[in-house]
């Protein structure tokens, strides 16, 4: 049974796509079969993993709006054997309008994954969400079992988080009772500043054990990698950023193992 994570935070610039891409790659290189679903119209996760996705490329838009099987649109990541990607194209920008009149519009992604799992198996599904709380993110929240929230170690880190949690609460109440906020990952950590430590302590005090021990440092290599169509895991596997994402992936895998024990 795949573990399905929705990576969400309606605040932009907190490292959602960077986290989605590098965690997916870290799980893949660790031997875990992983599917990353790019549900952000910007398509940055697809770009960062070397997936060709010009306008008109079959992807998540066709899955959500036209009912195309997930297996027909996923592509193998060229740099990571155990990683597949369901790409996003600019067509996805119109999906919200296309879905408004659709039957079961909130469950389109869940239904697509249920059909996919009848014939294919993966260990992890990561869904990279847009920085908004519209129908695309709603589909991700309904399809997922767990939510991973990246929080940057900067001023205003918790801004907007209350609204996100309220929206998650409504989804839990009305559409997905199994959904839990299971994981928080601290990103953009700069150990040279007091502010980073203050934010990290505040988040840990507030959320407790769901905050991963691993923090993701500010890293030039992490920022450079997407420009080469790669995750930092393959762009510079020995860098601090790559090692941190590998540690975070191990923590997530270990938590899953403990839950099964």
For this entry, give a set of tags.
261 residues; single chain
Task: Give the percentage of residues in beta strands.
Answer: 15-25%
Distance between the termini: 15 Å
Global outline: globular
List unreliable stretches of 5+ residues.
none
Mean of residue pLDDT values: 91
Order of SSEs, N→C?
EHEHHEEHHEHEHEHEHHH
Helix share of residues? Answer: 40-55%
Mind describing the biggest β-sheet?
Answer: 8 strands, mixed
Rg computed from alpha carbons, rounded to a whole number of angstroms: 17 Å
What's the number of extended β-strand segments?
8
Strand order of the largest sheet: 3-4-2-5-1-6-7-8
SS field, number of helical segments: 11
The class by helix and strand makeup works out as: alpha/beta
Fold and architecture overview:
The protein has 261 residues and is α/β, with parallel strands linked by helices. The chain contains 11 helices and 8 strands. An 8-stranded mixed beta sheet has the order 3-4-2-5-1-6-7-8, sandwiched between helices. A hairpin with a 6-residue loop joins β3 (75-76) and β4. α1 packs across α11 and α5 (108-116) crosses α6.
Short description:
By secondary structure, the protein is α/β, with parallel strands linked by helices. It has helices at 16-29, 44-48, 60-66, 95-100, 108-116, 135-143, 161-174, 194-207, 220-224, 232-235, 240-260, and strands spanning 3-7, 34-38, 75-76, 83-86, 124-128, 146-152, 180-189, 211-217.
């Amino acid at each position: 049974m795949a573990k399905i994570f929705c990576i969400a935070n309606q605040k932009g610039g907190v490292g959602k796509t960077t986290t989605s891409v590098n965690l997916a790659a870290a799980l893949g290189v660790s031997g875990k079969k992983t599917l990353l679903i790019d549900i952000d119209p910007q398509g940055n996760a697809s770009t960062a993993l070397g997936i060709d996705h010009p306008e008109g490329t079959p992807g998540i838009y066709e899955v959500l709006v036209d009912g195309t099987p997930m297996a027909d649109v996923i592509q193998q990541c060229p740099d990571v054997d155990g990683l597949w990607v369901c790409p996003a194209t600019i067509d996805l920008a119109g999906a919200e309008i296309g879905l408004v009149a659709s039957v079961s519009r909130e469950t389109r992604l869940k239904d697509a994954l249920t059909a996919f799992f009848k014939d294919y198996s993966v260990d992890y599904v990561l869904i990279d969400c847009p920085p908004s709380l519209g129908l695309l993110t709603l589909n991700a929240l309904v399809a997922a079992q767990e939510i991973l929230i990246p929080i940057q170690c900067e001023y205003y880190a918790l801004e907007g988080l209350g609204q996100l949690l309220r929206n998650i609460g409504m989804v839990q109440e009305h559409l997905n009772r199994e959904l839990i906020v299971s994981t928080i990952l601290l990103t953009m950590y700069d150990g040279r500043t007091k502010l980073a430590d203050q934010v990290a302590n505040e988040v840990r005090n507030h959320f407790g054990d769901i905050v991963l021990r691993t923090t993701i440092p500010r890293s030039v290599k992490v920022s450079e990698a997407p420009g080469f169509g790669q995750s930092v895991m393959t762009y510079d596997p020995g860098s601090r950023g790559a090692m941190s994402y590998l540690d975070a992936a191990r923590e997530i895998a270990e938590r899953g193992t403990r839950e099964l024990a």
